[in-house]
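COMPLEX REQUEST
Ligand: pyridoxal-5'-phosphate
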Amino acid sequence: MSVLDLARAEIRALVPYSSARMEATGGALLLNANESAWAPFGDAGMDCHRYPDPQPAALVERLATLYAVRPAQVLVGRGSDEAIDLLVRAFCRAGEDAILVQPPTFGMYAVCARVQNARVIEVPLAADFALDADALLAAVTPAVKLVFVCAPNNPTGAGISLEAVERLAQRLAGRALLVVDEAYVEFADGGSAASLLDRYEHLAVLRTLSKAWALAGARLGCLLAQPEVVALLRRILPPYPLPRPCVAAALEALSPAGQVAARERIGVVRVERARMAAALGAMAGVRAVLPSQANFLAVRFEDAGAAYRRLFEAGIVVRDVRRYPGLADALRITVGTPRENDRVLAVLGGGL
Ligand SMILES: *Cc1c(COP(=O)(O)O)cnc(C)c1O
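STATUS: Structure written out below.
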C-alpha cells in the first residue's frame, strides 16, 4: 500500500492549474504572464512586477539543508497553517473522512477539518498531558486519514520524545498519515521527527519560520514528507503562494549570520523560560507552571481571570487558555525579552 492510497481519489486524478511560470522558465524577455514590464515604485531590486517562483529553489534548498532532508521532501507554503489546510483537503473526503487530534492542542487542525466538513475525533491527552498512544490508536477507524500530534504541544508546552513518535508511526503504518507539528521544536531538548522521514512513508512533519526564526510576519512554513506527498499537495497549492519580499526576508534570516543570530535568541528564550518558570512557580496565587519545551509557559493560577486582568491593565496581553480541556485555571504566557519578562514578574509579584 502507498501512502497516496489514503488521499482523495479526485485530488490524485486532478490536472493542476499550469501557470505561465511553470510552463516556461528562463528566457530574457518575459512576455508570457501579463505582468507589468516595469518594476513598481520603490521596488529596491526585488522585481515585484514579476510573479514569484512557485517554490523558490534557493529557499527550498536552504530549508532542506536546515532540516536535513532532500529538497523533494520540502513543500513551502504560507505558514504551516497552509500545510495543515492542504493536508486536510487532499486527504479527507467531505462528510466521510476524519482527522484525529489530542486536546488540549492547537486549534487549527480542527478548524481546517470543519471547513472541509471532515469529522474531528478527539482523544484527550493523558492526565499529565503526555501523548496517550494506546487511547489514540484505539480511536483510529478506517475513516481517520490524518493523525495530528503537536510536539512540543501548544498550549501546554509538553514535549514528545522521538522514540514515542516513532512507536506511534510504526503502529499507524498503512492506516493513517501521522502529521507531527514541530512549530516549537527549536526550543526543545529532543530532535526532529524529520530524521524518521525516510523510514516511514506515512509520516509528515510541519516546520515554521514563525517562531524560532522570528518571521511570523512573513508567513512561511513547510511540510516535510515523502516526495509523492509533496507532489500531491502541490497540485492544490495556489499558483504563486510565496511573495517575493517574504522569500527575500527568509533567505536573509537563514543566511549563516542569520542562523547564528537565531541560535543565540533560542538560547536566551531557553534560559528565560527556566527563570520565568522558577519565579512564577514560587509566586503566591500560582498553582503550577507546566513543564515547557516551547517558547511559552502554561501557568495555573488560583484566579486566572484576576491574573489576566491585572496583566492587561498593565498593558501586558497573554493568552487566556481557560476554554481548553484540563486548563480551566491557566494562562499561556509567551517568553519575551528579559526586560519584558521582568515586567510580567513585577506585575504578578505585586500580589494576586
Ligand atoms: C504557531 C503555530 C503554528 C502556525 O505556524 P505558522 O507557520 O505561522 O502558520 C503551527 N502549529 C502550532 C502548534 C503553532 O503553535
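REMARKS: The chain has a mean pLDDT of 96. Residues 258-349 form a domain with the Aspartate Aminotransferase, domain 1 fold (CATH 3.90.1150.10).
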